[in-house]
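Lab meeting tomorrow. Please check the following:
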Amino acid sequence: MSNRTDWFVHDRFGLFIHWGLYALPARQEWVKSLEEIEDAEYDRKYFSRFEPDLYDPVQWARAAKHAGMKYFVITVKHHEGFCLWNSRFTEYKSMNTPVKKDLLTPMVKAFRDEGIKVGFYYSLIDWHHEDYIIDTHNHPRRNGDIESLNKGRDHNRYIEYLHNQVRELLTDFGKIDILWFDFSFPDKNDPLDLSKGKGKAAWKSEELYSMIRELQPDVILDDRLDLPGAWDVKTPEQFQPRSPYKVDGQPVVWEACQTFSNSWGYDRDVLNYRDSRQLIETLIDCVSKGGNLLLNVGPTGRGEFDYRALERLEDMGNWMRYNNRSIYGCAEAPPEYEKVENCLLTYNRDKNRLYIHILSWPYKHLHLDGRAYIEHVEYAQFLHDASEVPIKGLEPWQEHSALDAGFDSEKTLTLVLPLNSPPVEIPVIELFLK
């Protein structure tokens, strides 16, 4: 594990923000591609009307801090090509919309002021740039005559633009903690034909990587430059790994990026928002497998977080206030500690403490099978209030039938629980180990 990721694997929880012109149609961030909207129409309707007058990045940062998030990643440019900062290399930026503001600079300051680390998402894809080679996969005009549409386009000019903007972002905003590129899709049969797909050759990833490391050697890079070995973190998207993430059999740093619903950008009509309990459980699940969670919000066209997202961030923060010791600095449990029924385990190596997250409340007893628990657990308490959880708990007169009921004190450590679950969304037991 690289030293540059030490803080990352400790902090575990971050905020993803997808924000751009697509907040106005409010039909997901891929609306331009999925509905095949031409540049002129897209800009007439959305670029000319983008005016987030309620934008307050301080409120965003405070919501993230309350939720327990330690870093954030903002889409400074998504696939639509629109830029949130006053870039010297384009006119397609927030300064030239009705809002007439650099939206990125105050955002970076607001999050830094709350002690939250800063990450930039930058789309390698650009559906707006006049020299970007249109391909058959994701461009709004993917069904047209590709050869005719690409006539006069100079991909080298686009690459110069891409590299210039990355240099600008890594030069003008101070220390950047995370750089999140998105994404590569080379054609397996013809990787050099840019109208079929794009990968490391298309982005000149080797040169880009060298520049990044020269400018900001400690920035954490994701794995989407199509450049083997030039990444710090794997980024499974919209799914949970079944076990700690490995590459070639070796454990790696990883982060699941996920949404509240099915959309990254603001989607007004989406109904399938995940509830707070699901989201807390997802965070725990990531950490129990040695990973992070990057949870996404899509702000509205007026510059506010959706009320449903705010409600869930509030709930997650209320849980994290009492239980963050089971998240920060934690990873998967050592293999000698067997899984516990209807529970997820996390472990803090520095403190030598094991955390049991109870997903389904049992009746009176929680059984911890295996010699590791018997030999190493010396004390147990609820994390939310530090109240003791007694160990073992069978009365002598009951022991005659204990084995038949599965109470084997030589193979199992049994915790005695209250009849009712504590008033915590997911209760956590903290085990102090010898």
